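Would you be willing to look carefully at the protein I have copied below?

:::
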Amino acid sequence: MASIDELISKVLEKVQNEVSNSFEVEASGRHIHLSQADVDTLFGKGYELTKQKDLSQPGQYACKERITVLGPKGAFHNVVILGPVRPESQVEISLTDGLALGVKAPIRESGDIEGTPGIVLVNGNNVVSLEKGLIVAKRHIHMSPDDARKAGVENKEIVQVKVEGARPLIFDDVVVRVHPNFATAMHIDYDEANACGFTKGMRGRIIKKS
């Protein structure tokens, strides 16, 4: 019969393995990425966005500036801009946000904006009418190359992720994004966060590869 010490050791080993093979889950609200050209239009020629808070992904930050996202049926005010600037502007919302705005945004990976609908951005009297760039972000995991190797996954691989909590569930169709500049974390939007009873510090674990 195993001793109490051996049982405790096995339990601790199991817990440590589960923690080491898991990653933090972060809920991402509606936000905007702007090109420098659109920053100039909204705030003035040569304007530089003001960093307010660093985000979990290295080099990414929330800006002090806030603007309005205007749709056919409604608007969201004080929407956060994330820096640094990008080659093309992009607005990320949830499916519920789309209903409030009166637009139907497709589920896409960040940066994949060809063929997506546009939206209007407003800062005071300054207006930018985007011809494309409105998306619902596909649920995804940012992973460092080392963590991807440990998890046995590759860039662009589709996996399932189990999250524990008050409303534990399994997220399907999660894309893995691997890059040396990434810190490992899963990103979901507020619709998905509500579905799993999200709380800060929640962790997820890959349970199946397609």
About this structure: Residues 34 and 89 are 4 Å apart (CA to CA). Confidence is low (pLDDT under 50) at residues 10-19.
